[in-house]
Amino acid sequence: MTDPNSLDFTVPDPWGDLPGYALNALSPDERARVEELLEYSPEARDELRRYMEAAENLSKLAPDTVPSARVRRLLLAQVDSDLHLMDIAREDARSVSPSGQSVLSAILKPARVAYAGTAAALISVIAIAAVFAAENSQLNSEVAQLRDDVNTESSEIDELRQSVELMTSQFAAQDAEVARLTALNAAMNEALKDQQWLTYVTQNNQYRIPEILQGGPQMPEAIGTLAVKNFDDPAVLLVSNLPPAPESYQYMLSLVRDGVPSPVASFQVNEAGMARVEFELPDNIVHFESIIVTLESLDGGLESLSGQAVMTAATAP
């Protein structure tokens, strides 16, 4: 066993290596010095036992996370400060004669305090780092959960918005269909009134019907009725089942004499494919050999005819 009075203070005091020994972080030479100290010093063994317990408790406390950069800076600053205190304690120990138990105690006591303070500070800083890491981990978990909740709510809101847009589109389509059917119903009622009028005026001999027009190959269902007022120039053409003219086009009614068509009225049909065309005869109807309806460009006017005939009729003499 080594006598404490014979310790050479020109080498590092093994008391300062107790924390490293407890953490299994010493070189073989440092471990040998500490183990030599533990052989004769009950106080050193008690000190080591406290370090070992603190290290074990700390291992249970610390989570498997990496301390933040701020905590690592605090830790390194604290270790640098404590190492500086250790250097001062060693210099004080070297400057004192090793003779005398009281001198030895006077030197070892402040050194042990410094080293114990270093270990305690190190453990405290690591514990603080562990707490910060645990809090950061919990905060990150809560933020991730909140993000998941927000994403879930956003997805539900998107689905609801799509449902609302689909319903709005369906309602708009239904409104458009209702509007179309309403307009078609109004057109049918108007055409029915025209037919009732034509029946009435022909029965009362106010008008006669010299011509019936039929649709061509492209519009076989189209039909037209020409009513001419007796002993006067007013005339009316009632058309049904004629498709609406394409955009930028119109229908043109013409009377043909000597093979030459003379435009007398342009018109468009309604949603039901019907139209009432009123015009003035340029001459007695018997002077024309036929009547035709052509599809013409809107830019053509009444003076020029270049479109294809869609309805025709031959006059009866």
Give your account of this protein's structure.
The protein contains 5 helices and 8 strands, in the order αααααββββββββ. It is of the alpha+beta class. It has 2 domains: 4-146, no CATH class; 205-314, Immunoglobulin-like, CATH 2.60.40. An 8-stranded antiparallel β-sheet has the order 5-4-7-8-1-2-3-6, with helices on one face. α2 packs across α3, α3 (42-61) packs parallel to α5 and α4 packs antiparallel against α5 (101-203). The longest helix has 103 residues, at 101-203. It starts with 17 loop residues before the first helix and ends with a strand.
Query: Percent of residues in helical segments?
Result: 40-55%
Put simply, the count of helices is 5
Spans of 5+ residues with little confidence (pLDDT < 50)?
Answer: 96-115
Mean pLDDT: 76
Q: Number of domains in the coordinates?
A: 2
How much of the polypeptide forms β-strand, as a percent range? 15-25%
Order of helices and strands: HHHHHEEEEEEEE
- Structural class of the helix and strand makeup? alpha+beta
How far the N terminus sits from the C terminus, by CA atoms, comes to 152 Å
Overall morphology: rod-shaped
Secondary structure elements and pairings:
Layout: H1 18-22, H2 28-40, H3 42-61, H4 69-94, H5 101-203, E1 207-215, E2 223-229, E3 234-240, E4 249-257, E5 260-267, E6 275-280, E7 290-297, E8 309-314
Antiparallel strand pairs: 1-2, 1-8, 2-3, 3-6, 4-5, 4-7, 7-8
Helix pairs in contact: 2-3, 3-5, 4-5
